[in-house]
Amino acid sequence: MELLSFKEKGIYCSVGDFFIDPWKPVKKALITHAHSDHARNGHEQYIAVRSSVPVMKYRLGSFINISGLEYAETLIINGVKVSFHPAGHVIGSAQIRVEYKGEVWVVSGDYKTEDDGISEAFEPVKCHSFVTESTFGLPSFRWKPQSEVYQEIHEWWIKNQKKDKVSIIGAYSLGKAQRLIHGLREYSDKILTHGAVGNINEILIKQGIDLPETKKADLTSKKDMLKGALIIAPPASLSSSWSKKFGDCEEAVVSGWMAIRGIRRRRSVERGFVLSDHADWDGLNEAIRLSGAENIYVTHGYTEIFSKWLNEGGYNARPVSTMYGENEEEDV
User: CA–CA separation, 40 vs 53, rounded Å?
Assistant: First the structure.
């Protein structure tokens, strides 16, 4: 019997009797991070990294039964040793290490290997079996250094300022938004946020995350505050009645999917910047190599293609069906 198996409700450890990121309600759920396709409502007990607990309570309800662990802190569940390790995806994201009688599995959740300077940086974890995502599991997905992307965004922002336009940039409210604020703050303090982003920021600042305070952009915002500003908002708010209230503006999206011309065209925004909180092709391969695992289980993304690539490289890899990545376009 394998230590972890893929069941109808999610990734299950029968010895420990717990699930990891289950997509249906269970008694005990270990959660890699607070995005909605991994942290779902309805579980009787949640266990996660301590730094992710405040945001999970905000999103799932303050009533949830949740315990927080520090990174690398060990918890024994029915004789199974469990610990959480940084995944570098967003603040509070983790890979979950599971060990029983010397056998080690790691469930990566979502991850990126580039240090964004605000999330806890990805740490390779040695194991026998590694459960990886494959969101960008094609060789065509290779990211530029993030500093170059920030420079591109700044140049676009300056161009709009010269035209007296407000710049609105679409970025997921947990993860990408904080990463942009952190990366762009050296250029200007004139960064405003949509309320959904601002609420998450307030929670993170209260728990000591090094994030500058930003004002929320709304109808009460004064004209001089909006003039030349960059507003960071959830992608769903672009081209909406909300964004149109700010008058003459230009809109852009920040996402790994902006590397695909057809998707850029479908989003109908003026600009698309390629920046993702997921590992690119090289990052996926590097993380798997550093894990030392022989057995690779490939979840959401290009599962078939990436598994075939890994098998040709000498791994024992196979795609597995999960519900991760559903309704997650804005997360990447």
Answer: 13
Between β-strands 80-86 and 94-100, what pairing exists: parallel, antiparallel or unpaired? antiparallel
Closest CA to 108 of 313, 310, 298: 298
| Mean pLDDT for the stretch of residues 253-263 | 87
Q: What pLDDT does residue 218 have?
A: 78
pTM of the model: 0.94
Q: 225: which DSSP letter? A: H
Give residues with Cβ within 8 angstroms of 118, minimum separation 6: 91, 178, 179, 182, 209, 210, 211
pLDDT score at 245: 84
CA distance 11 to 131: 10
Which residues on neighbouring strands pair with residue 233, listed in sequence order? 170
DSSP structural state of residue 224 = H
Max Cα–Cα distance, the chain, nearest Å: 65
Mean pLDDT for 27-47 is 97
**For residue 37, what are the contacts with CB-CB under 8 A and spacing of at least 6?**
23, 323, 324, 325, 326, 327, 328, 331
